[in-house]
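Input structure tokens:
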């Protein structure tokens, strides 16, 4: 994913790099020019005015190309970061729910924040890397030109020194990887800190345990690993300095004892360039930690495999591909099974099915069963949030292919899960924000008109009780106006009055409009209002009770397509 993005920016990156190299060439040019001028000190120069003009021109080039490359670079870096954010969010949105659940919210959040930052920093350094590399290469070329004997010595010395630094660099990469892994744990703690705010606030023992046994060990581990990693890069930095000054000292001593034929001004020029080289080489070594951090971040983002489950990788959000089937008449489930993927933390893998079931247009179906019997799991597989391991779902005879039809098929459902998230914008079937008038009608219907208002399709307040929030979620579902409604224990938080209103008025009303309702519920007092009650036990559909009271144990459905 990151590689694709870098490819997208390759031409502006090449342009900024070229400008950086030009800027480097000018700075080396100034150095070389000054070096040559030193030899004229005390002798006078015939071309004095021309020399001053050339120098002024070189300074101008240095400034202009410097500013230009830095400006293009900052624009490029901001553009890359923005594109990376869009890419990441787009790919999270285009990733199957299963994939999101597998990765875990905290890991996605960690990537959205720390990995994007690390990558953007590394990306913005690329032209600086080019600048400094160019400076080093040009300097070495000039050194070779001024004295090949001294250059051969410098080259061998530097090659050996870089070889040793490489060992430290590889170690640094490993340390950075380890450091990044601990970030995920810390983000998990941050998630608990925010989401478990109430529980932590009320319970001092829990607060203590959370702080001392969960957060502090993670923070300390990060501190320890950071110091360790930093120490590695400090070694690299100082090793570089020692090597460079070592080379300079050796040149001076070798010039006295071995290379006695090399003129003094060549040795002085050589040293001048070497002193200049300290800057670019040290910068390159310092940048290595940032670039390596970017490589680690890129690998981390790729390991999430966002968007790859759907085969799409994009900086946009997929939209409905074709017209919905609003006239559908039957939804048939055949031998459907779904098993959660294995994980280290789970004692066993829960699965549902094989399940056979026919649901007709306009039916009111209740799903019941003990906690953990698989009701929600089945519903998630039914509506395409989970991909069944085997079996088929036929929507009006069309066998749903979860690779190509998932998006389209999912559009026929509006769902309120027990752990729902309440969005503030009401979006209609046409994808547009609903009119405030329509929102008001539903606010009145759901007895929230005194608490909530609407402005340009947005609910003005969602600071409500949990039961009231669920009513707002119902309002959003109404406005979505799909043909199938899924309610996962919707009435569980409602007062007796509203619970009755839900079962006796709202659900029959939806049915009378031709909507199909599948509601997970434990409210047996209202089971008689449903057309059918499906009972789950240990992942299996064990009983179907028809509204005439007829009960069918272990129902087998005739396959009629
Ligand atoms: N994300 C998950 N990963 C792995 N296993 C899961 C996951 N979610 C649920 N399970 C397993 O599936 C089983 C059934 O969960 P499910 O949510 O379908 O039950 P349910 O019938 O809806 O229960 P409840 O009435 O308590 O909501 C659980 O006991 C659990 O072992």
């Amino acid at each position: 994913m990151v590689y694709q993005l870098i490819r997208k920016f390759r031409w502006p990156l090449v342009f900024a790099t070229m400008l950086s190299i030009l800027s480097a060439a000018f700075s080396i040019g100034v150095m070389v020019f000054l070096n040559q001028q030193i030899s004229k000190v005390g002798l006078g120069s015939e071309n004095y005015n021309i020399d001053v003009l050339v120098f002024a021109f070189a300074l101008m080039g240095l400034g202009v190309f410097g500013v230009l490359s830095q400006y293009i670079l900052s624009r490029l870096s901001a553009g890359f970061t923005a594109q990376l954010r869009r890419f990441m969010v787009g790919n999270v949105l285009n990733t199957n729910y299963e994939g999101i659940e597998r990765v875990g919210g905290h890991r996605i959040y960690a990537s959205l924040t720390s990995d994007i930052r690390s990558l953007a920093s590394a990306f913005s350094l690329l032209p600086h890397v080019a600048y400094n590399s160019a400076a080093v290469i040009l300097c070495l070329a000039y050194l070779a030109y001024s004295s090949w004997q001294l250059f051969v010595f410098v080259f061998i010395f530097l090659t050996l020194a870089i070889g040793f630094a490489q060992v430290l660099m590889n170690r640094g990469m490993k340390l950075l990887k380890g450091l990044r892994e601990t970030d995920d744990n810390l983000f998990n703690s941050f998630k608990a800190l925010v989401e478990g705010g109430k529980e932590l606030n009320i319970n001092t023992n829990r607060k203590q345990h959370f702080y001392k046994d969960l957060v502090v060990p993670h923070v300390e581990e990060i501190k320890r690993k950071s110091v360790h990693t930093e120490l590695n890069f400090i070694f690299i930095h100082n090793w570089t300095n020692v090597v460079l000054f070592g080379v300079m000292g050796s040149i001076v001593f070798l010039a006295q004892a071995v290379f006695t034929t090399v003129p003094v001004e060549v040795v002085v020029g050589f040293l001048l360039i070497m002193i200049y080289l300290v800057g670019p080489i040290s910068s390159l070594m310092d940048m290595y930690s940032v670039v390596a951090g970017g490589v680690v971040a890129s690998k981390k983002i790729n390991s999430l495999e966002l968007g790859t489950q759907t085969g799409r990788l994009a900086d946009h959000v997929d939209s409905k591909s074709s017209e919905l089937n609003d006239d559908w008449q039957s939804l048939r489930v055949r031998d459907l099974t779904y098993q959660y993927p294995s994980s280290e933390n789970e004692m066993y893998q829960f699965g549902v099915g094989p399940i056979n079931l026919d649901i007709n247009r306009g039916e009111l179906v209740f799903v019941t069963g003990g906690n953990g019997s698989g009701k929600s799991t089945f519903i998630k597989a039914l509506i395409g949030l989970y991909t069944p391991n085997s079996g088929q779902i036929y929507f009006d005879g069309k066998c749903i292919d979860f690779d190509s039809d998932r998006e389209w098929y999912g559009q026929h459902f509006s769902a309120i899960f027990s752990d729902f998230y309440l969005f503030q914008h009401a979006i209609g079937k046409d994808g547009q924000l609903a009119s405030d008038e329509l929102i008001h009608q539903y606010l009145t219907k759901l007895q929230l008109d005194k608490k909530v208002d609407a402005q340009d399709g947005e609910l003005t307040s969602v600071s409500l009780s949990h039961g009231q929030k669920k009513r707002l979620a119902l309002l959003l579902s109404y406005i979505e106006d799909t043909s199938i409604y899924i309610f996962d224990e919707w009435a569980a938080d409602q007062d007796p009055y509203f619970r009755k209103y839900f079962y006796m008025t709202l659900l029959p009303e939806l049915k009378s409009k031709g909507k199909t309702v599948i509601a997970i519920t434990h409210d047996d007092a209202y089971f008689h209002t449903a057309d059918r009650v499906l009972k789950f036990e240990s992942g299996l559909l064990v009983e179907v009770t028809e509204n005439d009271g007829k009960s069918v144990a272990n129902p087998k459905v005739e396959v009629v397509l």
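The chain has a mean pLDDT of 84. Residues 330-412+482-553 form a domain with the Rossmann fold fold (CATH 3.40.50.300).
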